[in-house]
Amino acid sequence: MNTMRKPRILLTLLLLLALLIAGMPAARAESFQAVVSVDSMQVYATQSPYQSLGTLPRGTEVTVKAYEGYVALISYGGKKGLAQVSDMTVKGAAEAQTAQTKPMVATCQTRFYKKADAASSYAAVSEGASVELIAVNGKCAKVNYNGKVGYMLYSHLGEPGTTTQSAADDTPVQTGNAPVAASRNSRVYASASLSGDSVAVSKGTKMTLLAIRGDCAMVEKSGAIGYMPLSHLESASSSAQTASTKSNPFAADSNEHAIYAFLIGEMGYNRAAAMGVMANIKYESGYRPVCDGDRGTSYGICQWHAGRKNNLIAYCEENMLDYTTLEGQLRFFKYEITTRYASVHAYLKSVENTAEGAYDAGYYFCFNFEAPAARTSQSTKRATYARDTLFGM
Question: Which of 296, 141, 338 is nearest to 313 (CA)?
Answer without folding.
Answer: 296
